[in-house]
Amino acid sequence: xxxxxxxxxxxxxxxxxxxxxxxxxxxxxxxxxxxxxxxxxxxxxxxxxxxxxxxxxxxxxxxxxxxxxxxxxxxxxxxxxxxxxxxxxxxxxxxxxxxxxxxxxxxxxxxxxxxxxxxxxxxxxxxxxxxxxxxxxxxxxxxxxxxxxxxxxxxxxxxxxxxxxxxxxxxxxxxxxxxxxxxxxxxxxxxxxxxxxxxxxxxxxxxxxxxxxxxxxxxxxxxxxxxxxxx
Length: 231
Fold this sequence. Notes:
By secondary structure, the protein is α/β, with parallel strands linked by helices. It has one domain: Rossmann fold (3-Layer(aba) Sandwich). The protein has six helices and six strands. The protein has a six-stranded parallel beta sheet with strand order 2-1-3-4-5-6, with helices on both faces. α1 (18-29) links the parallel β1 and β2 (33-39). α2 (53-60) packs parallel to α3. The longest helix is centred in the last third of the chain and has 24 residues, at 145-168.
């Protein structure tokens, strides 16, 4: 039985991005979604992982509102103008590792801390976008040190938080969600335009999975097709 009830309220974090905006568009059209709110760096209640204080402030802005039954966090970084994913160990550098840890692990971890309090204790799901390359067991190719490490750290934060939340909110599910390759700014340097799925298609695939989740799925690492990934 799905943890997301009918009707439900949704919050999309990182709603100005390619995948985040696709989620908002689909949820606005969903017949059971009575309201969807999107927040990002330039929204009314901004959230910016380069300023970690914005996370708690953004969550507090919703503390007196009705609870959410679905929260999706899409914020993440793979590369920027200054560097690309490392191909070899000699490419590893502190600045890149620190930035990816902050945006891909510390920021999402603090988001779970503050925004999980906004979940409906009766039935709700909080999904955070992770990546298959964050799986330690599945790592066959090496490389991409900072991205892999930051997503592995994120996965541990999600898993650990899900165990604690299961004691206080047993009808909630916290999950790590792998979107696959999506045609977006993040994937563009890696042939995303050729091999990636359209954002709306990818977001719909992930929504389909989220609507199948039960409380026993909390703490799972799941792909857009519903496959369980090894940690």
